From TrEMBL:
InterPro entries: RidA (IPR006056), RutC-like_sf (IPR035959), YjgF/YER057c/UK114 (IPR006175)
Family of this protein: Belongs to the RutC family.
Identification of the protein by name: 2-iminobutanoate/2-iminopropanoate deaminase
GO molecular function: deaminase activity
Cited Gene3D superfamilies: RutC-like
Cross-referenced SUPFAM superfamilies: YjgF-like (SSF55298)
GO cellular component: cytosol
Species lineage: Bacteria, Pseudomonadati, Bacteroidota, Flavobacteriia, Flavobacteriales
Length: 126
């Protein structure tokens, strides 16, 4: 059985999907891009600000499911430019304890929704 997880503290989906699905003890979070849920606008300027907004969106969804970043077991980061990896990694790393950080891959892609520079999805287990 699956449970839909939704919060107004993260942006509403821009297509036929949900913010997250809880199946048993496992939470599958859809990719989050740097949209500010309060304003509905993209956070633009630099990759660090964009990454922080994406991570804050993920945090809000985790909290709605009564979880934290400590529950995350897998992350996927999609970048429009791998040259931004260091800056993204710097911001991303502030949300995790290095000793218990999740498995992860980071890939460069041609385009992302709304032509943003970063999108991050996660899987968490309680």
């Amino acid at each position: 059985m699956k449970k839909i997880i939704t919060t107004t503290k993260a942006p509403a989906p821009i297509g036929p999907y949900n913010q997250a699905i809880l199946s048993g003890n496992t939470l599958y979070i859809s990719g989050q891009i740097p949209i500010n849920a309060s304003t509905g606008k993209l956070v633009e300027g630099n990759i660090k600000e964009e990454t922080k907004q994406s991570m804050e969106n993920l945090k809000a969804i985790l909290e709605e499911a009564d979880m934290t970043f400590e529950h995350v077991v897998k992350s996927s980061i999609f970048l429009s430019d791998m040259n931004q990896f260091t800056d993204v990694n710097e911001v991303y790393g502030t949300y995790f304890n290095p000793e218990t950080a999740p498995a992860r891959e980071t890939v460069e892609v041609a385009n992302l929704p709304k032509f943003v520079n970063v999108e991050i999805s996660m899987i968490a287990v309680k």
